[in-house]
Amino acid sequence: MFEFAWPFAFLLLPLPLLLTKLQKSQQTAIVRTTALYHNPMVQTGSISQPARFSIWPWIIWLCLCVALAHPKYYGEPIQLPNEGREIMLAVDLSTSMREQDMQYQGQYIDRLSVVKAVLNEFITARTGDRLGLILFADTAFLQTPLTRDLTTVAKMLEEAQIGLVGQATAIGDALGLAVKRFALKDDSNRILILLTDGQNTAGNLAPEEALILAKDAGIKVYTVGVGADSQSNFFGFQMQRGSALDESLLTEIARETGGQYFRATDVESLQRIYQMLDQLEPISDNSETVRPQTALFYIPLFIIVLLLFTQTLVNSLKTLRLRSGA
């Protein structure tokens, strides 16, 4: 769609015509006054020979007015996501995440594979949000800073391997690192989703100390305890497997920060948890619509330059022809 930013510039179109008429009337008045002064009996008729009409100046003036009107082309509307929704994901990579106690389609698979599969769906559905990824075991490190590049976040999660950061579980370090990263953001809703299957057994920061920092920073923490409670063996006995999940700590962290604790014992329950998180922290629907615009004022200016060049070339050729004829 074309639009002119300053359409009032077209009011200047008749200006050369008005100036030409005004100039002619002034010249006529001067000639009549001079003739009457020298010979009152002289009747003025044809004052001067009419100038030869040329359309080129009018085209140049028209192009100049069009350029002054600042023509623009507006493209198709583009939806831009709203800013401000930022979620940090903290995933446990301790050895216990290798435990194959998560049932899916009749088979038992390891916890980390289930977390990756389900969390990948959650990541791809967060269009418009910024996500970051923290991996933790013996300590915690930032795998991906907060970004809208969800493809990269999903890829980094997929490439995460057990033992990459050690064997233990540093919940306090993961929480502290999230506090540190959110401290760099002024306008943020500051949400952390922490997934673990154990209890804090390593790290430089105790979970209780990290919890105080998270509360002071206004970070809302949703904790997810991953892993089945028990599993039947071949003889029908129930056996506790994997690491001991510190549900009391995870519940306290979630409650004190305004979040919520979830227990994921299988794939279906983990999927339901992410659906609940979508409801608790819905994707923003206040998207902004913009239309890309392209300025086109340079086109009439280019035509003016081209006409002036052509006119100069034509005049030069005429001059050369007259000289050669003489």
Automatic annotation (TrEMBL):
Q: Which residues cross the membrane?
A: 295-314
Which keywords does this chain's UniProt record carry? Membrane, Transmembrane, Transmembrane helix
- Record keywords: Protein biosynthesis included? no
Q: Residue ranges of the VWFA domain? A: 86-280
Q: Name one Pfam family in it.
A: VWA
Question: Which SMART domains would you find in this protein's record?
Answer: VWA
Instruction: Provide the protein name.
Output: IMP dehydrogenase
Give the taxonomic lineage as stored in the record.
Answer: Bacteria, Pseudomonadati, Pseudomonadota, Gammaproteobacteria, Alteromonadales
